[in-house]
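Design request, tokens follow.
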């Protein structure tokens, strides 16, 4: 059985893109406008929550992919319902 792992490269790319792009834009804007470090600080305040959001979203998508590969939740159409083990009948009556 081959091991299935979370793609850390994808998480790293998302994190780097979301953190670096606003910080580089802030740095370039500061060099062109010649302002103190206020634009980099603003870019940091914007990029850190965005990075958290996108990295968590990407990590959850990766975990879902791994779970689907390891233990798919879909029932095959050829399998009869009686063949399912551990299924409890409903206790609610109509």
């Amino acid at each position: 059985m081959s091991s299935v792992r979370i793609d850390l490269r994808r998480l790293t790319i998302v994190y780097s893109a979301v953190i670096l792009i606003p910080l580089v834009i802030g740095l370039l804007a500061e060099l062109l406008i010649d302002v103190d470090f206020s634009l980099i600080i603003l870019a940091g305040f914007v990029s850190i929550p965005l990075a958290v959001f996108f990295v968590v979203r990407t990590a959850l998508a990766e975990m879902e992919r791994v779970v689907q590969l390891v233990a798919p939740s879909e029932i095959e159409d050829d399998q009869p319902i009686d063949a399912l083990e551990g299924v409890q009948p409903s206790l609610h009556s109509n």
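Comment from the thread starter after seeing the answer: thanks! The chain has a mean pLDDT of 80.
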